[in-house]
Structure formats: C-alpha cells, structure tokens
Write the structure tokens for this entry.
Amino acid sequence: CQPTPRRCLVTAGPTYEAIDPVRFIGNHSTGKMGFALAAEAAQQGAEVVLITGPVQLHIQHPNITRIDVVSAQQMFEAAMQEFPSCDAAILSAAVADFTPTVVANKKIKEKQSSLTIELTPTPDIAMHIGAIKQPHQVVCGFALETHNALEHAQAKLSKKNFDCIVLNSLTDQGAGFGYDTNKITIIDVTGKTVEYELKKKTEVAKDILLILATLIQTKN
Ligand code: C5P
C-alpha cells in the first residue's frame, strides 16, 4: 500500500485582487506552510502540483510543478484543471474572499474626499473541489479562526467536504503568518482532534502528511 499521495495538489500563498493597474487587495500570507508541504510531499515521492499566489519563495525539486497565479479566479481555474488528476489536495492558500467588481483601467486619483470600492465574492476553490471530490480523493483544508476555533473549523470541514482540516493559531507566539514555526490542531472527518506543539513548518508538514496518508489508507 502506498500511503503518500501519488499526485498531490497544493495551493499556497495569498491572492492579489486588482483595484487598478497599481493597487490590489491582498493579505499577509507568505506561502511558507504551503511550500513546506509541497517540499515534504515531493521528498516522500509524490508528484506535486504547487499552485501559488505571489510569494518571495523559491522551490526546486524534480517532482514539483509550480504554477504561479495572481488572483483567486486564476487560482480557481488552475486548481479545477489540476485536481481531477490528483489523489490528494492540500488547500493552504489564503484566498481572498472578495474581489473588486470593476478594475479601474487607470490609476485611481488621490484627490477625492472618499472612495467606495464595490466587492464581489470570489469562487470558493475549496468548496468546488469538495463538491467534485471522488471517493478515492482526499482533501485537506485550512482554517484560521479568531474565536470558537474548534467549532468553526469543524463546521468548515463538513461544509466544504474536507477529509481533514488544519486549524492554525494566530494567537500563539511564533505561529502563523510569516513565521517559520506553526502551532496547529488537525480535525479529521471522524471528529478525531490532535493538538500539536509549536514546531518548524517543515516538521508541521510531516504531521499533516502523516494524517493525510492515514486518510488515504482508509479509502483504499
Ligand atoms: O472559509 P475560509 O476562507 O476560512 O476557508 C479556509 C479554507 O478554504 C482554506 O483551506 C482555504 O485555502 C480555502 N479557500 C479556498 N477558496 C476560497 C476561500 C478559501 O480554497 N475562495
């Protein structure tokens, strides 16, 4: 039995949603967790498709195909294209939930007393992947919650049809955006919840892949 995914989709980093030719709405994601996951999965022998938003990271491994995207819409299109040929998806990207309804074709002038930008929801990549997931495929989502974390993460797991969800801490020292360390809790589809110590993202990636391997085994 092959516990590591054979072909694994990883989404990573932020998305940038253009306001005008020079401005965008973004977030603080650096892509470190997603890149650590891609590196570890490749190291374990998986073919990895890494779809990443704009990040300052480099990765080179013969098993990794990197697809660079900018917006949520582009990440959605790439993910929908790649997911059917994968047996696992790890959705660690911090995808923007909203995007400007209209992108100004010229730089918006500063001499205005106020400015309102109308936003439209982006496609929920995780939700679409969860909806087309086949019985042999496993999907791991991420959640960053500020209150009632476990409850919200569990609700997200069922709503998006994940097999497991990684709950990220924003409050623990050294965890989350930009750090090389993370403190996570993984909840699986049976409700099993494991809380991990603060550790390097490279080590966190091993923990996540181990859970994924267990979930793959139960499906085969
Ligand atoms: O709902 P929320 O954004 O907290 O969900 C987090 C999970 O959903 C993450 O795995 C994230 O990558 C994924 N997601 C997505 N597409 C979106 C929004 C979130 O894939 N548009």
About this structure: The longest helix spans residues 201-219. Residues 11, 72, 91, 93, 95, 97, 122, 124-126, 141-143, 156 surround cytidine-5'-monophosphate (CB under 6 Å). Residues 101 and 118 are 6 Å apart (CA to CA).
